[in-house]
Amino acid sequence: MQRILTFSKGGVHPDDRKVYSRSEVIERLPMPSELIVALSQHLGAPAKALKTKGDTVVKGEKIGEASGFISSDVHSPVTGTIKEIRKVTLVNSVQCDAFIIIPDAEQPADVEEKIDWKSFDGSTLLSSIKDMGIVGMGGAAFPAHVKFSIPKDKKVDSFVVNGVECEPYLTADYRIMLEKGEQALEGAMIAAKIIKATRVIVGIEMNKPDCISHLKKIVAQKGYPIEIVALKMKYPQGDEKQLLKATLNREIPSGKLPLDVGAVVANIGTCNAIYEAIVLKKSLYERVISVTGECITNPKNVLAPVGTKMSDLLAFCGGFSSEPEKLVSGGPMMGFSFFDTETPMTKGSSGLLALGAQKKFRSTACLNCGRCVAACPIGLMPAKLYRYINNGQYEEAMKISLMDCKECGCCAYVCPAQLPLVHTMKTGKKLGRKKK
Amino acid sequence: MNKPTLTVSSSPHLHAKTDTASIMWSVSIALTPAVLWGVYVFGIRSLLVLGVSIITAMVCEYFLGRLYKESTLWDGSAFLTGLLVGMNMSPSIPLFIPCIASVFAIFVAKWVFGGLGANWANPALSGRIFVFFSFTTPMSSFVAPRTLASVLPDALSSATPLSLSKTAVSGGTLGLDGSSLLSSMGYPATDLAQNISAMTGISAFTIDTFLGNVAGCIGEVSSLALLIGGIYLLARQIITWHIPVTYLLSTALLSWMFGGIPSGLGLFGGSFLSSMFSGGLMLGAIFMATDYVTSPISHKGQFVYAIGCGFFTFLFRYFGSMPEAVSVSILLMNIFTPMIDRYIIPRKFGDTRELRKKQKEARA
């Protein structure tokens, strides 16, 4: 029996609520009538538009170019015409330019030809990842080529693949592991070659035992030097800090990157995207998104082109079965709630949730109960930070490591007084930075 | 598609089921076994004492809430404070005393500092201490429990066993530990306790204090009933083990090591078990010291706090001249809580020993 690992400090155990969509096979969305392809789908600088109004575009063609070191290319998900370029607001309140693309009735078929990547060297692979616009598929959408460019003075020995999917509801990664496991693991091997890692580890939580056994079988068949590691269910294990602690028992110091402890972390969905980019020469223009929640008539895992409007996804899944209280893009712990169903999904959209009304609690004063302190995976004191920020003492708050907060939501999840802790941390960080 | 009314708010969009009111009511439920035992052994009058304390506390909370334009009556905190005040009263207390104690607890200890969450001292304990020093005689005269009523002489039932042995030791009776001292004074034991004592070798007096067959405050006599409540709170994850276990063990350990000194038994002459079960320690350790508002927020801080409570309880019990060791110790450590929270902070993720060593080397 293999030892089941986890991280030691903090964390919470929300109900996983994956039942709605876990058994739904990935379905391709019928081509929507209109796509809104934003130029800022990733962390960092928005891409520069390469096309203008009226231009025709081909599926997979580059239409936006990376405009800085931390930036990523944007590709057209369809063959069609650009109706206009308009400013849009994304779910995370980012405002940027977006192409409004009208797809042609006839779309080119997917390429079946496979390319053997084993003869390519690391830097060639890295530049094709950049050209294909690969970003982290877990939610933050950090450009993958930046993550995989290892500075000369750093050495990486381990590549950790995140198959944790610790956010409740979401099942996109789960389905990818089950249905595209071979591709994803080959993608992981490609990534390991780029960063010259000798050890490849895939961490999967215990609520996905079928994924663990399925991936183990593939590893045994193909003879990959990959370790599949079972992890205890605990949120936020999908965070790279917690994942590295759980799998390698390494702690990333404050303000440092996984690189600093000799590891790189990537999502299993990213590995799949890498495989498609390298082997199938397919740029990142579509992704799997879980459309789920209590209020969705037919929860599904949908393979949708980037830029699909949320309303199209909802319509494909039969609309609402009952009136939702919240629409959330991403997971319920860190995702963004939004109100406009015309908002497009992006490369980082892992889920679209329609959540029902939750039991209303009355917010009270802080009881000093210490649940937030016990739940914080970083070892902060959220109650104390909350007090400082509300008193306007931003410097004091920063002294007790406000900037280390990653807004995972564990503190607000457990708070019996229902204090808006994450909201306050976000505000405090913004105002604190401004003051500096 | 119809447009639903949507809420937009910051993440997280899920919440654990526990809220303030459910915590407060759970603690009240956890106190039920001790209350039932108290009412059983001390008679129906103790119910009256509890009722007066609770109603006074809630009425007080209601009016102060109106004054502050907050409606806090049903969060359960005032009910709990009133209940704890009542449990800390002698069953024979004149009814105006729990009334005053509850008003002091809610008005002075709680609302003067801003209400729930803002008080620095445990309200119920403050109320108890206030009336204890104001009305010492009625506060320290007790009645015999039903289980010992026929055999316990009035002279012994009017005081708690702890204060009896304290008076005897300061009067010069040396060489006996707590329980043998009490048996030499003629303190009886129930048949059940004697039977268990014959089987286990633990003194019958200790077993009676554990079961609750002694004179004392309504809610504090039965360690067993309080432990049941404590286990319920632990199971519901309302409290963590850090404070109660550390507090009980540190008191017991210190009592065992040094508790024999005043009675002439020397080092390691004190009794480990009876020090844990007697007096208000069990009630204090499980329900009073664990009060969220007035105890430190981090587990590390809670250790320090509980050891402090244990140390002072031991000190006041064996070397002080007054009773109220548990109440005073907890209130004393309440004062230290803000300081503990300021200086004892949890280890930050990534702040490992190796990293600190490296930083030290880099500085050197």
Present the secondary structure layout.
The complex is a heterodimer of chains A (436) and B (364).
Chain A: E1 27-28, E2 35-38, E3 48-49, E4 56-57, E5 62-65, E6 74-75, E7 80-89, E8 95-103, H1 122-131, H2 144-148, E9 158-163, H3 172-179, H4 181-195, E10 199-205, H5 209-222, E11 226-231, H6 240-248, E12 263-267, H7 268-279, E13 286-292, E14 300-305, H8 310-316, E15 326-329, E16 336-338, E17 351-355, H9 371-375, H10 382-390, H11 394-399, H12 410-414, H13 421-435
Parallel strand pairs in A: 1-14, 9-10, 9-12, 10-11, 13-17
Antiparallel strand pairs in A: 2-8, 3-5, 4-7, 5-6, 7-8, 13-14, 15-16, 15-17
Helix pairs in contact in A: 1-4, 4-7, 10-13
Chain B: H1 20-42, H2 45-67, H3 77-87, H4 96-110, H5 123-134, H6 136-139, H7 154-157, H8 161-170, H9 178-184, H10 191-200, H11 204-211, H12 223-235, H13 242-258, H14 272-277, H15 281-288, H16 299-319, H17 325-343, H18 353-363
Helix pairs in contact in B: 1-3, 1-12, 2-3, 2-4, 3-4, 3-5, 4-5, 5-17, 10-11, 12-15, 13-15, 13-16, 16-17
Helical content band of chain A: 25-40%
Q: Give me the count of strands of chain B.
A: 0
Order of helical and strand elements of chain A: EEEEEEEEHHEHHEHEHEHEEHEEEHHHHH
Structural class category of chain A:
alpha/beta
Secondary-structure element series of chain B:
HHHHHHHHHHHHHHHHHH
Low-confidence spans of chain B: none
Chain pair sharing the greatest interface: A-B, 70 and 49 residues
Uncertain stretches of 5 or more adjacent residues of chain A: none
Quaternary state of this entry equals heterodimer
Structural class of chain B, by secondary structure, is mainly alpha
Task: Categorize the overall geometry of chain A.
Answer: globular
Counting DSSP H or I runs of 4 or more residues, the number of helices of chain B is 18
Total helical segments of chain A: 13
Helix content of chain B: 55-70%
Strand percentage of chain B: under 5%
Average pLDDT reading of chain A: 92
Alpha-carbon distance between the termini of chain A?
A: 52 Å
Q: How many β-strand runs of chain A?
A: 17
Rg of chain A is 21 Å
